[in-house]
User: Which sequence fits this backbone?
């Protein structure tokens, strides 16, 4: 690879590092954390709630909820 063809790669990489650093400094967050919170219940509460399991089965027709798996 000649020096001339490597230059665009070096420029693109450097630009990416610059943008990443600027985003980190400003504190911009492009991804929002998902949270399972229904009626004050967290993931574990919902996982063990039979009514919630039944509701999920009604929404997902012809499927069964088996622990963490949905079987259709």
Assistant:
């Amino acid at each position: 690879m000649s020096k001339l063809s490597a230059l665009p790669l070096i420029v693109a990489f450097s630009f990416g590092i610059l943008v990443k650093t600027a985003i980190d400094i400003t504190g911009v967050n492009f991804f929002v954390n998902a949270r399972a919170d229904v009626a004050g219940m967290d993931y574990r509460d919902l996982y063990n709630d039979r009514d919630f399991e039944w509701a999920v089965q009604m929404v997902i027709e012809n499927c069964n909820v088996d622990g963490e798996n949905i079987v259709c």
Remarks:
- The first strand starts at residue 64 and ends at 66.
- The chain has a mean pLDDT of 81.
